Amino acid sequence: MKKKQLFLNLILPLGLFGQSVVVIPNTEKYGENGIVYDNSLFFSKNYKLVKFDGVSVTGTAEPSYNNQPINGQLRGSMIIYNNKLCYSYDYYNPESPIFSHLNKDYFITYDGTNYNVLLNPYYVYAEGGITIEDGESDFKPIEYNGKLILRSNSTNANYPASQSSYFHLWSFDGQVLTRIDNPYFINNPYINVSLRPHLGNWALVYNNDLYFGYTYTGSYGSRIAKFDGTNIALLDDNFIYYGGIFNLANNLYFNMFMSPVTGIINYIPASNTFLLAASIPPPMSDVNNKPLIHNSKAYLATGNKKLSVFDGAIQSQIGNPVSGDNGVVGNPVLFGTDVFFQYQGTGGKYFLGKYTPGDTGLSIISNPSAGDTGIGAKFKEFNGALYFTYKTSAVSPNVIPSYLAKYDGNAITVFPNPDGGLGVRDNSFVVYNNELYFSYENVNKTVVLAKYGTAVLSTDETVKETGVSVFKDNNGFSVVSKTNKIAKIEVLDASGREILNAKANAQKYSFEIGNHGVFMVNVTLENGKVSTLKVRN
């Protein structure tokens, strides 16, 4: 029999499940822009693109243009388009406002091996350029007619070279970056502050047209515009548009002031008609996020801090449970069959609010301690629970650490931080390798990448607890249990997708993985004990 050698350089055994918050080494100055691509977690570290394969962090090559390294900075978010990683990459020369007119703006696509680098000709020796952000930002790109639509940004538009492009949209087809001319652009450096389009929560593709927000010189607020693939046109020159655009039952709605009222407007493109569908209490500036659409109803937090439910005909406001509370302040999300949101009580306390469709009132999930500040605004559903940040009471004057917490449908559980830092930041969460990743501010006040997942144990600890080991076996792997039979083997890829689920009923089980990358192998023994092994193929 051929002697098997433990494949230590290809596996990282995790042993028994020990869920905790763990800081990922070598991720200082994390850019808070993690995205899963090509079976790895990509993000920027100190403004440079790196990737994490579940075991270690490695850098990528510096992009070049005309055979010269750019030496740029990745400051925004990334997006996957045409199965490639896309991001804006800027050269700063040097990083000082005095010399900002010497900057250059590049747009880059990356397929995991090769770069395609485009120099934006309108931002050569000029400040600003294409900006990509995610979440609720109006810099979040949108796909339209198979192309990626982006917008540009500038913090100082006093340089002539940047003036002509500050207030335009851009389209990208995978090869060519094209400026979409702004017909309402006025090239005047003294009045250009209001000349800008809005994407993200302000934009939506409806009936083959792109609708977006548009603020232009001479107005006292935003207007709504339409792009048909060739031309941009304002829909109306008098109404003030507040975003929150959505499609409900194939009807287009958005938030707007249409004198003398503010409300949800039903727009009919064929006749260019604006119809008031439901009034919304002011201030409208607080309700520009897109609503949650669930079971043919729209759920939105309105300016008077209440949850509104709109079915296309009737808007119902759900009363807050406690008189005097500030009320619903966060964007609604769906968890199970219920609607959840951040709810503010009195004294600066935040709670997890819940609404069951059909009920006449809201309910509030109690915080673990009455004196705690409470939950954050960002939510992520993961492995049957709703995750968010959570702040307890101050540990010292003006210092309130933030922790990771989850709601499992019954109660809130708060997880300890790995050090005495400010903790988990109320930012975006990303799932990779069946684990939850997020940004964390450590004791040195440095932002790093952290995860909530299985605590890493050594090989010896794994064998001691469960007697399970894994070997590289010809073209595949073999899992061996020292004492108990293996009941079940489950293999997940980096995105959490199950690629194998098999019953073993033996002390050894062999399998192959067709793709390359890092995979999670869950081993369930007959005695009920579970071991998780991370393998690299």
UniProtKB/TrEMBL annotation:
This is Secretion system C-terminal sorting domain-containing protein. It comes from the Bacteria. It comes from Chryseobacterium angstadtii.
